[in-house]
Design goal:
alpha+beta, Immunoglobulin-like, 3 domains, 8-stranded mixed beta sheet, elongated
């Protein structure tokens, strides 16, 4: 209201000057300024009474670069909306209000280019008179939050790139609960299929024992995300997108497991991607502070995809160097000098570092 107050003071100054110097022509502009400022204030106060601002967000979770519809509704009181505009952080410029209407609707198709939590401040409605002498602000009820998920990009396999390329593109892996690898013997349990009974032991000692088989989930590809040491936020985001894309691609190809920072055990996914929404949301908020817990890798026999936000200066990351599984693949943003990438995904490149075969079970 400061411009209106200044206008009133100017009008009073003209009236005082007219009275002191008996300058009758100054009475008219002085009174006009006072009336104009008073009318502007009354206009804004009457028009802003009963104004309500509401916002509806089409989705609370959205993938990077995916459009989400956000609707802002401004409802007026009995007198209708006065002149003014709507301000929101997602608008490139204030949107003018349609004066005289009871309701004004604005639709924003917002896109978020980076993953993470996005707090959206409540929209504001600025109500003003036509001369700009008085303004009043009406705010929305509360702020809102949108979780931006990392997008899923295709895995582009280089031709003739080795076993890593085969692992990244193969199909038809067995179900996640299948038991295929011999892990030893144990006493017979009633109801065990005859195909799992160890008949040589029965022939030698007369004791009925069964073969203990190892779960196939331990032989499936494991994606490990190490977000530490990223030289830039873009490298961290690229590593997260690469881990996300690899997990979805390998899960759909037959199954895989994902080890995130802070987890003691990897989370397994079958081709139906059951439970993926929770993991996807966790990937959206991964920071570069904590690294993965690699103690659970000692029991896995399958290939390991180690996604690191920081390319190693020399050698192989410690966690990947001691991985007991099969193929070992390092996925990093950018390029590794002297190595040929097996595949590319989300701005990262995967490099096959060799294959370790698990020892035979005695």
């Amino acid at each position: 209201m400061r411009p209106a107050a200044v206008t009133v003071l100017l009008g009073l100054a003209l009236l005082v000057t007219a009275a002191i110097f008996d300058a009758e022509p100054l009475y008219v502009p002085g009174a006009a300024l006072i009336v104009l400022a008073t009318g502007a204030v009354a206009w804004v106060l009457a028009g802003s009474r009963g104004v309500r601002v509401a916002r509806t967000i089409g989705a609370r979770r959205v993938v990077e670069e995916q459009a989400v519809a956000i609707e802002i509704v401004v409802a007026a009181g009995r007198l209708g909306l006065p002149s003014g505009w709507v301000e929101d952080a997602l608008l490139t410029a204030p949107a003018p209000l349609a004066a005289g209407r009871q309701v004004t609707r604005l639709t924003i198709n917002a896109r978020f280019g980076r993953r993470g939590r996005r707090r959206l401040a409540a929209p504001r409605v600025v109500i003003r008179d036509p001369f700009g002498l008085a303004t009043r602000v009406a705010r929305g009820v509360q702020d809102a939050e949108v979780l931006v998920l990392p997008r899923i990009e295709p895995v582009v396999v280089e031709p003739g790139a080795g076993e890593a390329a085969t692992l990244a593109s193969r199909r038809g892996l067995r179900s996640i609960a299948a038991e295929v690898d011999l892990d030893g013997l144990r006493p017979y349990r009633p109801g065990t299929p005859a195909s799992r009974i160890y008949w040589p032991a029965l022939a030698r000692s007369g004791e009925l024992v069964e073969r203990r088989l190892q779960a196939d989930s331990d032989t499936r590809p494991l994606i490990v995300l190490d977000p530490r040491g990223a030289p830039a936020s873009d490298d961290l985001d690229a590593a997260v997108r690469a881990a996300t894309s690899l997990c979805v691609a390998l899960a759909r190809a037959g199954g895989c497991a994902l080890l995130l920072p802070g987890d003691r055990r990897a989370t397994a996914f079958d081709p139906g991607l059951v439970g993926w929404e929770h993991a996807h949301a966790r990937l959206a908020v991964v920071d570069g502070v904590r690294g993965p817990n690699l103690s659970g890798m000692a029991t896995r026999l399958g290939p390991v995809f180690y996604v690191a936000a920081l390319a190693p200066g020399g050698g192989v990351p410690r966690g990947l160097a001691h991985a007991p599984g099969g193929a070992r693949v390092l996925v990093v943003p950018g390029r590794l000098p002297g190595r040929r990438a097996a595949f590319t995904v989300a701005g990262c490149r995967g490099y096959e570092l060799g294959v370790r075969r698990p020892a035979a079970v005695a």
